[in-house]
Amino acid sequence: MMAAPLKIGILNLMHDKEDTQQRFTKVLSAGSYRVNIQYFYPQNHYTSRPVPKLVQQISQPLDLGQAAAMDAFIITGAPIEQLPFEKITYLDEVHQLIDCLVANNIPQLYICWGAMAAANYLYGISKMPLPEKIFGVFHNYIQHEDPLLTGLDDGFLTPHARYAEMDINKIAHDPRLIINATTKDNRLFSFRARDKHQYFLFSHLEYGQDALLKEYLRERNTHPGIEYIKPQNYFRDPLHMKDPQFSWQRTQRVFFDNWLQAVANDTKTQQLVKE
């Protein structure tokens, strides 16, 4: 008998919502497991304005009852890492979702700003601005072996794009947490909770080949008077910003397949416990 698809919930906080959903659908559907993905948006983000039609068409308002029925849940990044947490209008809604996932023992994958918000809420880890945006494709080095990194060589490539970092020293000295991998400059790739189903990923590993270029152009076009840093180690022709390379494609495939395998194993364990 074919196993039922894994039910994956995703709270999409990214600016480019349609592209983001296409990226996650592609990477999660490319692995060895069948998935049924439901995208949500935070209702509190639209308390003072109408929900855009596109958002309504491709996702639905966050419902904790539905979230509790998922096999796993992802909270995406958001281009708001320069803002203090208390300035985020939907932060309480994110916290309520995290509480729901923890209470129901649902595997959690937090990405970029989602990882920052969850690490701060769950473990009191502070967010700190970086001297400049970490932006481009970088080697990542394994600090502790982890099932989600199985099959990746030390120095694996991934895209990073953020203006802030979490207090890595506090993470390293928290016995509840374990750092899995960092860049050579000690910027976080990921850490996880030791005894809970929580994984904090700081690379935008869902990004496809052109995503870093799109992010750069979006920032530049939004504020044309500002000179934004260009993505590093990304273009075959960096002088003219041409021919972006998808050098993290293998990392992407291996990581998300490993994550889905972990979710599937957790689902089987939960079913055995219930039986």
UniProtKB/TrEMBL annotation:
Its EC number is 2.3.1.30. Pfam families: HTS. Keywords: Acyltransferase, Amino-acid biosynthesis, Cysteine biosynthesis, Cytoplasm, Transferase. It is found in: Cytoplasm. It comes from the Bacteria. Coiled coil: none annotated. The record marks 161 as: Important for substrate specificity. Pathway: Amino-acid biosynthesis; L-cysteine biosynthesis; L-cysteine from L-serine: step 1/2. It is an enzyme of class 2 (transferase). GO terms for biological process: cysteine biosynthetic process from serine. GO terms for cellular component: cytoplasm. The record marks 81 as: Important for acyl-CoA specificity. Its main location: cytoplasm. GO terms for molecular function: homoserine O-succinyltransferase activity; serine O-acetyltransferase activity. Substrate binds at residues 133, 218. It catalyses: L-serine + acetyl-CoA = O-acetyl-L-serine + CoA. Gene3D superfamilies: 3.40.50.880. The active site is at 112 (acyl-thioester intermediate), 204 (proton acceptor), 206. Belongs to the MetA family. HAMAP family: MetA_acyltransf. Transfers an acetyl group from acetyl-CoA to L-serine, forming acetyl-L-serine. This is Serine O-acetyltransferase. The lineage of its organism: Bacteria, Bacillati, Bacillota, Bacilli, Lactobacillales.
